[in-house]
Design brief:
The complex is a heterodimer. Chain A is α+β, with helices and mostly antiparallel strands. Among the domains of chain A are: 3-53 and 141-236, Gyrase A, domain 2 (2-Layer Sandwich); 55-136, Aminomethyltransferase beta-barrel domains (Alpha-Beta Plaits). Chain A is built from 10 helices and 20 strands. In chain A, the strands form 4 sheets. In chain A, strands 11-12-13-10-4-14 form a 6-stranded mixed beta sheet, with helices on both faces. In chain A, strands 15-18-17-16-19-20 form a 6-stranded antiparallel barrel. In chain A, strands 6-7-8-5-9 form a 5-stranded antiparallel beta sheet, with helices on one face. In chain A, helix 2 packs across helix 7. The mean pLDDT of chain A is 97. The longest helix of chain B has 8 residues, at 119-126. Chain B starts with 9 loop residues before the first strand and ends with a helix. Classes of the chains: A alpha+beta, B alpha+beta.
Chain lengths: 368, 127
């Protein structure tokens, strides 16, 4: 079954082209991917990301459950703060990467699109096995999620609320009233720009909120943004896409999420990660920027002197840099910065250089 | 927006246009096709001199998110390619019927021309 967003009719009226993504019919673009991409970097854009999942976790042992099932120690995450982390299998491979928000006595977890049932079941099983007093409720279909991203995102949203948005720090989160509706706001995003994400219960009329934000953002040249630009924006910042970067079983060490691992607590998959670290010789996610014309895509082989040394998981033309960029899992001995490798695109070798993340630095639009 | 269809061209159901001159054809993609693809960012063209059969892959046009193969509507020999597209593939979006042409082919079998769509037929197809 294909699920439509609660905002589907609005997208149709705005002339969106649609795509199917993890069981959801969502806008891929409204005007053009390039235009939408550059608008988010320079101005502000509004995304419907209702395909993402929402799970409430509450009860005496909620913190324990999150700590045990993610690479983060939830006791370190203060009230009204959110955290990016990952849920692992026993073998250390990533099931999903998520954000969880600490909202007073509850946690809201945001897994990826189409993952709500799987994650809910997984968490409930862990709770049961460990005798934890906790409720795990999948409320994905009750919520609309909006992301407002870009240098003018705060100015736009500030017009609709009395809460001083400057007081919500990076990764801060809280309940908030926006245009008379109760929402959950977090200072988070998937674009690398200043931005916020809003969780709105569908009873609070998210469709009129969407329209209001577009209206109020008009003075900052706001436009609606589809999943196409969402993907190119995140790739320029070297953010991971679950369906691409974790497919086939990858650990957080391979996916370069070392920074997100809190080693001082016990979690599922920890033993496997310790072993992998000791052995050491594993492929790691690597940024490649093309030195010749060509656009790498998911599945392209990476070679050195005709030998396979890795595989591309995400690739695109970077709208900001106007060059082909890719993330690829590369054998450790070939991924030193400035190393030149060949990406095989339709049988042709396209030279690409290993570079440090992100592809597009902070404040690109200002410095340009 | 109404998409332009030119009366002096022939078409395919896969949205290429074909301009038939005496012994050769010029091939491009239609206004409808470029608008569906949006933001063409890369065009991979064939080598001049290559013999190609009808239905073979002629070139590849990429937008930011998609890769589209264009199959040859005609058999023959590649006699010219639009080298401007190498640095400026967006011309295909801007001028699909003029500066945005893709390749010229020397016709091997003139009868294949009869299989192409007339402007009226193509118009019905995209309506």
């Amino acid at each position: 079954m294909i699920v439509k967003s609660p905002l589907h009719d609005i997208h149709e009226k705005l002339g969106a082209k649609f795509t199917e993504f993890s069981g959801f019919k969502m806008p891929i673009y409204y005007s053009s991917i390039k235009n939408e991409h550059i608008t988010v970097r320079k101005k502000v854009g509004l995304f419907d990301v209702s395909h993402m999942s929402n799970i409430w976790i509450f009860g005496e042992d909620a913190e324990k459950l999150i700590s045990l099932s993610t690479i983060e120690d939830a006791s370190k995450i203060k009230n009204e703060m959110s955290q990016y982390t990952a849920i692992l299998r026993e073998d250390g491979t990533i099931i999903d990467d998520i954000i969880f928000m600490h909202l007073n006595d509850k946690y809201m977890m945001i897994p990826n699109a189409g993952m709500s049932e799987k994650i809910t079941q997984w968490l409930r099983n862990i709770a049961k096995e460990n005798n934890l007093a906790v409720n795990v409720n999948d409320v994905s279909r009750d919520y609309t999620i909006l992301a407002i991203q870009g240098p003018e995102s705060r100015n736009t949203l500030q017009k609709l609320t009395d809460t001083d948005l400057n007081k919500i720090g990076f990764f801060g989160c809280s309940y908030i009233e926006i245009a008379g509706r109760e929402c959950i706001i977090s200072h988070t995003g998937y674009t690398g720009e200043l931005g916020f994400e809003l969780q709105i219960n569908n009873k609070e009329h998210p469709e009129s909120l969407f329209n209001k934000i577009i209206l109020e953002g008009n003075e900052y040249n706001i436009i609606p943004i589809g999943l196409g630009a969402r993907d190119t924006l995140r790739l320029e910042k070297s953010f991971l896409l679950a369906g691409n970067e974790f497919k086939g079983g990858r650990t957080p060490l391979e996916a370069l999420l070392n920074w997100a691992i809190n080693w001082d607590h016990d979690f599922i998959g920890k033993e496997s990660l310790i072993k992998q670290k000791e052995i050491g010789n594993y492929e790691r996610l690597t940024n490649l920027i093309c030195l010749e014309n060509g656009i790498p895509r998911n599945g392209c082989e990476v070679q050195k002197d005709g030998l396979k040394v890795g595989i591309v998981t995400s690739g695109t033309l970077s709208p900001c840099l106007n060059k082909g960029i890719a993330m690829a899992y590369i054998k450790p001995e070939y991924r030193e910065t400035h190393n030149v490798l060949d990406i095989i695109i339709r049988g042709k070798k396209i030279k690409a250089k290993v570079t440090k993340p992100p592809f597009v630095k902070k404040d690109w639009a200002i410095l340009k | 927006m109404v998409k332009e269809i030119r009366d002096d061209l022939k078409y395919t159901d896969s949205h290429e246009w074909i301009k038939v001159e005496e012994e050769k054809v010029i091939i491009g993609i239609t206004d409808h096709a470029q608008s569906e693809l949006t933001d063409i960012v890369f065009a991979e063209l064939p080598v001049i001199g290559k013999e190609i059969k009808k239905g073979d892959e002629l070139c590849v046009v990429e937008s930011v998110k998609s890769v589209s193969e264009i199959n040859s509507p005609i058999s023959g020999k590649i006699i010219n390619v639009n080298e401007k597209l190498e640095d400026n593939p967006e011309i295909i979006n801007k001028k699909p019927y003029d500066e945005g042409w893709l390749v010229e082919i020397k016709i091997a079998n003139i009868k294949e021309i009869n299989d192409l769509l007339e402007p009226e037929e193509y118009k019905k197809l995209i309506e």
